[in-house]
C-alpha cells in the first residue's frame, strides 16, 4: 500500500484541534513515534515541524536549509524573525550574521538567473556588512550581451556610486564599439567612463579616419562635446579642430586662422598632424583679404621649418622622408610660396595702416 501523501505529523496536527494545542506541544515526539511505529524514519518536514513544536528556531532554520531546494523560504523566514526580534542574532565566523548570510546566499542564486538578477540587487542592498562587496563581485560577472542590458547594469552602478565598475563597463562597451568601427559610440562611452587614455585613443582614430576620408563622422557628437573635451589634450584638439572647420564654413576666416595657429603653437595638435593644419592654412593664405598678420605668418613659417628641419617625432615622417616624397615636397614648396606672398602683403598692409595713423 502506498504511503499517504502527507507527513507523519499531519495526523497529530489534526488531533490538536480536538485534544488541545497543549497536548501536541507537550508530546510531539510521542505522537511521531506512535504514527511511525518504529518502522520508518521521519521525513525532512517531520523534523522541521518537530523543531517548530519545540520552539527551536535555529533548528527550524537548519532543517529548512537542508530540506528545501532553494534559499527563498529560509532567507525570508530568518529576515522576518529578525525584524520581530525573535531570532538571537550571532555573528558567523566570516563576519556576517545569520540573517545577512542567508540573504546573501539567496541573492547570489538570483544573480545566476538570466532574468531575476535585478531582484538580487535589492537583496544585496539590505545586507549592511557584506552586501556592497558581494554586489560588486556579482556585477562584474554579468555578461553584457546587449547594450540595453549594459545600460541597466550601468544605471545600477551609477546609483550606488560604484565608480570602478562604471569605468570597467564603459570601457568594455567602448572596446566593443571601436572593434565594430563605431567611433562615435566608442568616444561617448570613454567620456562617460572619464577614461582619458581611451578618449585619446578614440580621438586618434577620428583623426586618422579624417585623414583617410577627408571628413568627420559623428559630427553631432563632436560638435556637442562641451566641457567633456577637456578630458584629454587629444580630445580637446579634436573638438577645436572641428570648430575651425565650422568657422571656415561660416566664412569667419580671421577667427578660424587664429584658432588654427593656436592649435600648433600651444602644442595641443600632434606633430604628425601639423602638415594637415598647414595645408588647411593654404586657402586662407590665398584669400584676397589678408587673413594672417605678419606676426602670425612668421609663426606659421617657424612651424613649417620645425616640421622639415630634420627633427623627427616618433610616428611622423622625418625630413629626409619629406624630401623624398614628391607629394609632401610639393606641399612644402606651395606653403613656402604662399607664406612668403602673404608676409609681403601683410607687411604692406600693416605699414600702410601705421602710415595713415601717423
- What is the N-to-C order of secondary-structure elements (H for helix, E for strand)? HHHHHHHHHHHHHHHHHHHH
Estimate the mean pLDDT confidence: 80
Helix content percent band: 55-70%
Compute the number of strand runs.
0
In whole angstroms, the N-to-C terminal distance is: 126 Å
Seen as an oligomer or otherwise, the chain set is single chain
Per DSSP, the total helix count is: 20
What is the strand and helix layout of this fold?
Blueprint: H1 10-19, H2 21-26, H3 28-36, H4 44-53, H5 57-67, H6 72-83, H7 98-111, H8 117-125, H9 131-139, H10 147-159, H11 163-179, H12 183-192, H13 196-213, H14 219-223, H15 233-249, H16 253-265, H17 274-285, H18 294-308, H19 319-324, H20 326-357
Give structural notes:
- This protein is mainly alpha-helical and 358 residues long.
- Among the domains are: 44-126, no CATH class; 251-309 and 321-350.
- The chain is built from 20 helices and no strands.
- It has helices spanning 10-19, 21-26, 28-36, 44-53, 57-67, 72-83, 98-111, 117-125, 131-139, 147-159, 163-179, 183-192, 196-213, 219-223, 233-249, 253-265, 274-285, 294-308, 319-324, 326-357.
- The protein is rod-shaped and about 120 Å long.
- The model is unreliable at 1-6 and 15-21 (pLDDT under 50).
- Pfam families: Nucleopor_Nup85.
- Keywords: Membrane, mRNA transport, Nuclear pore complex, Nucleus, Protein transport, Translocation, Transport.
- It comes from Rousettus aegyptiacus (Egyptian fruit bat).
- Component of the nuclear pore complex (NPC).
